[in-house]
Each structure stands twice: as C-alpha cells, then as structure tokens.
Amino acid sequence: MVDCSDEDDDNDGVLDEDDKCPLVANPDQGDSDTDGIGDQCDDDSDNDGILNDVDNCPTTANTDQADLDNDGIGDVCDDDKDGDGKLNTEDNCPD
Prior knowledge:
- Helix content is 0%, strand content 0%.
- With 95 residues, the chain is low in regular secondary structure.
C-alpha cells in the first residue's frame, strides 16, 4: 500500500519520484532495456513484447521465440542452437 507521506515507499534509498520501481526495492536502479521501468519490476526485461515468465530468452529481444532444437532456450541466446553438443562458435553447421 502506498503511503502518501512516505517519499521512499520501498525503502531502497531512492525517492519515489526518481525511483524506476517505487514499490519494489531496487537501489541500483538497473534498467537493461532502457524503457524507464527498473529491472526488478519489469515484466518484459528485453522489451520484445513477450513477458519474462514465458519468454525463452528474457534478456535478449526475440519476438519470434525461435528455438531450433526445442530445448526451451531461444536461438538468439542459445550457445548450441541446433542441439548437437557443439557450441555455435565451433560448429560448421550451427543451424
């Protein structure tokens, strides 16, 4: 519950008027996708339109949610996107 007389509702040392998450403690004010919403309370950390809890790559934008090897990790952030046991950087055929 917001207390109108409390200028720092989450007690993180940042005044509510300057806080990117005024009701969730986030003293570092991290905002990795620069959308003005702090990482601690941002439901879409990579700002790709897919909510974090269903995003197969929550910190890297990937609106298509492609997952070639069906391992639950999106291709854009999967070190072995074809699932053959070889890192993409060492694989002759990473796709």
